[in-house]
TrEMBL record:
Protein name: Penicillin-binding protein
InterPro entries to which the protein is assigned, alphabetical: Beta-lactam/transpept, Beta-lactam/transpept-like, MecA_N, PCN-bd_Tpept
GO biological process: cell wall organization; response to antibiotic
GO MF terms held by the record: penicillin binding; peptidoglycan L,D-transpeptidase activity
Entry's Gene Ontology cellular component terms: plasma membrane
Stretches the record annotates as Disordered: 276-296
Sequence ranges assigned to domain Penicillin-binding protein transpeptidase in this UniProt record: 322-578
Keywords from the UniProt entry: Signal
Species, as recorded: Mycobacterium yunnanensis
Amino acid sequence: MTRRCVTWILLCALLFGTTGCSLFSSAGPQDALRGFAEALARKDASAAGASTDDQGAATAAITSMLDGMGKDATLKVAVSQPGDDDKTGTLAYSWSFGPNKALTYDATATATQSGDDWRVHWDTKALNPQLQPGMTFQYSDDKNYLTPVTDRDGQPLLTWQTIGVVGLTREHADSAAALADVLRPFDDTITADTIAGQFAATRDDRITVIKLRQDDLATVADQLTRISGVSVVEQGALLTANRDLASPALDGLPALWQKAIDDGAGWSVTLVSTQGPDKGQPTAQLAKTPPVDTPPIRTTLDLRLQSLAQQAVATEARPTVLVAISPSTGGILAAAQNAAANAQGPIAFSGAYPPGSTFKTVTTAAAIQAGLATPDTPEACPGTVTVENRTIPNEDEFDLGTVPLSTAFAKSCNTTMAALADQLPADALPKMARLFGIGVDYVIPGLTTITGSVPNADTPAQKVENGIGQGTVTVSPFGLAVAEASLGHGSTITPTLVVGANTTADTPSQPVPAAVAADLRTMMLQTVSDGTATALQDVPGLGGKTGTAEFGDNTHSHGWFAGIAGDIAFATLVVGGDTSTPAVTVSGDFLRPALAG
């Protein structure tokens, strides 16, 4: 080794560490080529560029290549010497972008000597034989973004649409008031103060203020261009096909849609222009696998029924929810919440509330199955009844004397149900509730749900309270709708949201004894014809059960109505409704047009 080389190695070690010399020179041409290849494989653009005779141009081109291929891409580069010319090497590139996504090709590079040092002569073709100055690489996942999410009849619920992302630069934060004025028709919560708060919460130079649908953007586009610092970037987004469509049943569908189009995605690697009027335009195709056809994500929802449910709950100021399920299929037909309910979260599927007298369906079923009563059995319905120092009253302590069980059910006699519940075993109500689906844990693709909880009642007082849907019993509106649908089906249903996506349950489906189901359906019809829901006598074939359930300090009650009409099983809840009347009204507003269509 010459004194000059030793001196250079020592200087290099002092300045850059012992590994730094290989970045800038090589003992021979093949060493230079291997150093270049190894730096590329490490995705070290600076090191690869420094091993060439034009570090600036090479580093910029290699950085652009790595950026274009994506951070998740892996790269291997092997060197072979063609023929007798040891100054030239073949670089075998092997890119991987995930399972079954590989791109391989060969490129040629030449080493050149400068004094005692060897470097790779910079040429864009060392990265790819088709690459020229002013071009770079671009990897793309090619997906069927136009795949829609539909209702059960193929009507679109969610579609891929163009939106405008409206942003503001920090430099022009004083434009916040003007921007808020323009955006107020779309979101009246946007103010100069909220925009200032966004800037305060980030160090970014630009914030996103709102995302607008394309038709909304068109109405204010000119105004936005006149506000300093405002930018609008168009991008795609999965949105409801109808801007008025809103349901907690839709919340998990974008994730299922994303998985479906990801699973069917194709991919491509393209060389694109980096300059001039054709910037971003493809110049050569290096690899392409087209996406497979992705069928629409078809749900069990019914767009017409969903719209009717939304209209019905919107008439109430208090938090109001309606869930409808098909007894014949178990498919969720509609799930609607008004604005007050939305403020409390997806309570249609995950809220837990005492069901009140709607739970008498379960209590009555348990009593009939146990042989304690039939619909015609005379039962006492006094104004109050006391069990283990727990006094249970009827509403306003009404007293019917002795009446058939069917009348006590239709008129919602708490005292009758309390007496029957007191005669049942501790586990009778939990077992019957699970047969109806309450307490069953369902895993439904696209949804997070609870059905409710019905613990064992170990004391007489707990039995009577649980028997009238108070005490430790809770249900969600979804769980109560599942119970009604199971009754209509004749066995525990398996609720579903996406066609072809199987629901699992921690409890197998069980049949509802036919005689019990028939008796309950008859008593529910009587509740509408001559009981607590006579306001819905005009709804053909409707059977149901009203309910009020005290909560908190027992000064207020939730209002419920649940039932079956045709192939629609439903549960309606008005949080803090105080009586069942609002829930009955909302249910009627939904059912009348639903059954007329």
